[in-house]
Each structure stands twice: as structure tokens, then as C-alpha cells.
Design goal:
Shape: globular
Largest sheet: 9 strands, mixed
Length: 566
């Protein structure tokens, strides 16, 4: 018996040592090749998705002589989350996403988030319009198409919620033109597949916004990349993976990259590094060793969709219909049935269904999550996990879904659907942020966040949503944070040529809304609805009214300020 005790104690001691080594690994930095360039390049971008390419496009326009290098581990750009098949393609403008407009305890509807997202998407439209004008983006219908956005609910309580949401949002110039109906015949005209075969006694309601869009972010990324490559100061190197990030005493970064074709490594000096590698950004940020990285961890969640490729169905469904998440479900569970244009063909997707994976990228490693756990974040990850058991329960339920279960969910939105009409596809990976807030402690966040060091020499974009739809405004924020001197010295003036509304709130003026939307609608071939100048009065009155404190919400460790679906 004593022998077994000794063996047991020895085993526990060994496991403890292994655990400490795991959490503190590596205990020393391995040697890397010396830098090949004496004069640093100006910017190194890590990851070939829409975020890095958007930032590079801004930089090239603002200062064409900047030396910029981009490293992508796959054999092309836009092959992860930016790829058209790996995201929902919604031009997120808050027209239909009910998560952006929660009902407060007093029964009122919060619209601040929705208006903020709508403002951001207007910036995206301006940025893309400018790129069309400059010839970096081609025919707009290749990447953005008019696709009305609908919200659809059933049940008395939800019908009343949607009515109040419509009344609250329609006071704003950016939401002018939205329609509301409880008439099944009207809703059937908007979305026939949603209504055909539905119980006529079921109480339903919908909002319809004709200004919605479907966007192929993969096409945007590829076309902007080709535009960047016309300038010899921009270099794209695919199948190159960043394996080390070291900062010298001179604040210059040494970026070590591995050529995945031949296995060789080399090091490049750079004055500034942007980590826009999607889910992998968490690990790369940790690799940098900056103190700010200690506050973050990541939680990966994948997504799956049901894809309908039959032309007959795609021809009958030409809207994006967003529903409401089941009570107690997390924001990522919001169901939607979307009209898409992918590979130059109309497609309908329904989902998402969550897919738990320990990968941080679709083409990543099963060890990604484990290798991101350190002594700095393990406590926060455990605490967040224990306080978000509803999310854990939801993912466990999703993992057990069968095709019959998925079809049952589909029937709620497409009552006449047949099992043989769809196939299950796997979309991209999303990594939600776990952040150690100095005041509130560890929190789970579903939005995006820019992390920079105190010297403004490195920045990383963490999180998943609203993501690609708002990449231009997100990168504008990054420019302001990371390049404050350059912005003050002339970049801000140049940015007004790219984003005419820069520095102004579009929603505060019906006239400005009309001005900006007229420009972008003409440039992008999108529908346009002129806002009566009188609509400005309601918005202005609402803005001028004394602020009424909202009832306090229950304390939560979920700092999801975006409330966006996966």
C-alpha cells in the first residue's frame, strides 16, 4: 500500500511539473535568423484577410512610398473567414439583426448599438465606392448586390417587440424606408419560402428594408490585393508563416517568417506590425511578448450552414431573413436564411449551427486552443467558463445535433423545405475574446477590439464581429490609435477624400444621409431612398431630449457590446 502511495504522490508531482512547464512554456526564446534588412520596412502585415488588405489600401493611398510587406500562411489571400463561403455575407447595417436592439427591463428598445453599426456600414460603403472610382475594385455587382433585409418573428410577445423596434428605429434617418407588417399576404410577397406552408393561425410579423445588401468579402479582398500589387512598395508573400516576433531596444520589430514550401526561416525588420490573422491573432499577440497581451485569451467557435444550390429555390428567395435567438441562447445562435451570390451563382444559406473546435482557424491546428493557454490567462479562462455555462450548454447541445435536428430548425423558417434540398457546409472559425478587465475581471466579449502597445509599434485585431462588414471603419480606428502623428500631419485631410463623412455622424442629419447615400448608391449600383428633411427633426429631438437613465441590467460577465450573430 505504501508503495502505491509513493507512486501516486510521484505521479501527482510529475503532473504538477508538466502543468507548470506547459503554462510557462517557453522558458527561453529559441534562436532565430538575424534580420536580412538593415533598413526596416515601414509596415509588416500578418494575415491575408480583408482587415490587413483594407489597412494596406488605406496606407498606400495616404502615403504611397511606405514599404509594406504582407505574410500569409496559406497559398492565397481571403481563404479563411474572408472567403465568401466562410461567412454570412450580410452587409451588417443593423436593419434586421435583432441582437443589436435589445428590449430593456422597462419595455423600451435600445437603438444605440444599431445606429452605431449602421453608421459604420455607411463608412464601408464610402470606402468601397472610392475604390471603385480609383479602379481598385471592379464592377460593383461582382462584390455587392441589393438584397433586402428582413426581421421575422412569431408569437404575440415577439410581434409586439418587433413593432416597438420598428417604431424606435424608423425615427432615425439611417433607417428611413423600413416597413413593418403583420399581414401574412404582405410578408409572403417579401419572402414566399418563409410563409408557404405555415400555419395560418400563427401570429407573425416582419420588417422589410429594401436598402440591405449581400457582400462577397472574398472578392473585395482579392481585388484590393491586385490593386496593391501595382505599387512596387507592396510585397505579398504567401505560404509564409510568422514564427517569432521580437522587439529590439530601438523599438524595431524583428519578424521571423517560415517559408512553408522549403522550411527555411528568415527575419525582417519593421517599424510597425499589424496582426490581422483572424483567430490566430491571439497566439501571435502572445508571441510578441508585449504586456498588453497578458490580458487576453481566445475561445474558438465554428459555424455550419445548410446550403441550397438549386436555381429554382434561389430564384424564389431574394432576401436575408433574420429571426430571434431562442430564450437563453447566446447571440451567435441567431438563425437567418440568406440569399447569397457566390461563385457568380445565387445560393441560399440557413444557419448558423455552432461547431465546437479547438482550432483557431479553419485551416489551423487542433492544438491552437491549448497552446494559447498560459499562466497569465488560465485563471480568467476558467472563471469565464464557469460563469458562461449557458454558452457551454448550448455548444454541447449543438455538438449532438443530427441532420434531422437541423432540418427541424430549418422548418421554422422554411416550412416546405425538403431534406434532399440542402447539404451541410462548414464555415470559418471565429475566436471570441476573453479579456481581463482591470475593473470587472475576466469577461467574455463577442465584439472586435484593437490592441496596441504603449509605443504604438504593434497592433492586433481580436474578436469576430461585426467583422468584415465594418473593416473600413475598424481600420480607420486603428489608424487613429497607431498613427496619431501622421493623422494630425495630413492623413486626416486625405481621408476625407476616401470617406467623405469622416468626422461626422451621418444619422444626425437627414441631409447628410441623403448626400452620402446618393454618392454610394450611384457608385455601387444600390437602391436609394431619399429621407425627407422632416425625418431629421425626430432624430434631432431625440438627441436633444434629456437622457433618461435605463433600468440597471443584471450583473453579467458577458461584455458583448455588439450583440452580433456568428
Amino acid at each position: 500500500m505504501r508503495k502505491f502511495k509513493i507512486w501516486g504522490i510521484s505521479l501527482l508531482a510529475l503532473l504538477a511539473i508538466v502543468g507548470v512547464l506547459f503554462l510557462y512554456w517557453p522558458l527561453h526564446q529559441r534562436s532565430v535568423p538575424a534580420a536580412e534588412n538593415d533598413k526596416p520596412v515601414d509596415v509588416v502585415l500578418v494575415g491575408g484577410g480583408i482587415m490587413s488588405i483594407t489597412l494596406a489600401t488605406y496606407l498606400q493611398e495616404l502615403q504611397p512610398d511606405l514599404k509594406v510587406q504582407l505574410f500569409e500562411r496559406l497559398d492565397g489571400v481571403a481563404l479563411e473567414s474572408s472567403n465568401g463561403w466562410n461567412n454570412a455575407g450580410t452587409g451588417h447595417s443593423a436593419f434586421a439583426e435583432l441582437n443589436y436592439t435589445p428590449e430593456l427591463p422597462d419595455g423600451s428598445i435600445e437603438t444605440k448599438r444599431a445606429v452605431g453599426i449602421a453608421e459604420q456600414f455607411e463608412i464601408s460603403r464610402q470606402f468601397w465606392s472610392h475604390q471603385v472610382k480609383e479602379g481598385r475594385l471592379s464592377q460593383p455587382s461582382d462584390f455587392i448586390n441589393p438584397t433586402p433585409h428582413m426581421s421575422f418573428v412569431w408569437g404575440e410577445d415577439r410581434v409586439e417587440y418587433l413593432r416597438k423596434r420598428y417604431e424606435a428605429l424608423s425615427r432615425n434617418p439611417l433607417f428611413y424606408g423600413m416597413q413593418f407588417s403583420t399581414d401574412p399576404a404582405q410578408i409572403k410577397q417579401w419572402a414566399p419560402l418563409v410563409m408557404e406552408g405555415r400555419d395560418p393561425a400563427q401570429k407573425v410579423a416582419a420588417t422589410y428594408m429594401p436598402l440591405g445588401t449581400d457582400v462577397n468579402f472574398g472578392v473585395i479582398t482579392n481585388q484590393l490585393t491586385r490593386g496593391l500589387q501595382r505599387n512596387p512598395n507592396f510585397q505579398l508573400q504567401v505560404q509564409h508563416e510568422v514564427t517569432a516576433l521580437r522587439q529590439g531596444d530601438d523599438k524595431i520589430w524583428n519578424v521571423t517568417v517560415k517559408d512553408l514550401k522549403n522550411g527555411t526561416e528568415r527575419t525582417v525588420k519593421s517599424r510597425f506590425v499589424f496582426i490581422g490573422a483572424g483567430g490566430a491573432a491571439v497566439k501571435l499577440l502572445q508571441m510578441s511578448g508585449i504586456p498588453e497581451a497578458k490580458n487576453y485569451a481566445g475561445f474558438p467557435v465554428g459555424g455550419q450552414f445548410l446550403a441550397f444550390k438549386a436555381p429554382a429555390l434561389a430564384e424564389r428567395h431574394k432576401v436575408k431573413v433574420y429571426g430571434m435567438a431562442e430564450t437563453g441562447s447566446p447571440p451567435m445562435s441567431v438563425p437567418h436564411i440568406d440569399a447569397r451570390k457566390l461563385d457568380d451563382k445565387p445560393v441560399v444559406l440557413f444557419g448558423p449551427f455552432a461547431l465546437f473546435s479547438t482550432k483557431f482557424l479553419k485551416e489551423g491546428s487542433w492544438f491552437d486552443l491549448f497552446s494559447s493557454v498560459t499562466h497569465d490567462n488560465v485563471g480568467g479562462m476558467l472563471k469565464v467558463g464557469s460563469e458562461n455555462l449557458d454558452l457551454v450548454k448550448y455548444l454541447m447541445q449543438q455538438a449532438k445535433l443530427t441532420d434531422e435536428d437541423r432540418h427541424a430548425e430549418l422548418l421554422k423558417y422554411y416550412p416546405n423545405a425538403k431534406r434532399e434540398d440542402w447539404e451541410l457546409i462548414t464555415a470559418g472559425q471565429r475566436v471570441q475574446i476573453i479579456k481581463n478587465d482591470p475593473e470587472k475581471g475576466p469577461l467574455l466579449q463577442f465584439g472586435t477590439e484593437i490592441v496596441t502597445d504603449k509605443d504604438k509599434t504593434i497592433a492586433a485585431l481580436l474578436g469576430a464581429s461585426p467583422g468584415a462588414s465594418t473593416s473600413p471603419p475598424i481600420m480607420l480606428n486603428l489608424l487613429a490609435q497607431a498613427f496619431p502623428q501622421e493623422m494630425a500631419a495630413g492623413w486626416e485631410t486625405k481621408l476625407k477624400d476616401i470617406v467623405p463623412s469622416y468626422g461626422r455622424k451621418i444619422n444626425e442629419s437627414a441631409a447628410l444621409t441623403n448626400e452620402i447615400r446618393t454618392q454610394t448608391s450611384q457608385a455601387l449600383g444600390l437602391p436609394y431612398i431619399e429621407v425627407p428633411v422632416g425625418a431629421q427633426g425626430a432624430a434631432a429631438a431625440a438627441a436633444a431630449a434629456p437622457a433618461t437613465p435605463s433600468p440597471a441590467a443584471p450583473a453579467s460577465r458577458n461584455a458583448n457590446t455588439e450583440m452580433q450573430a456568428l
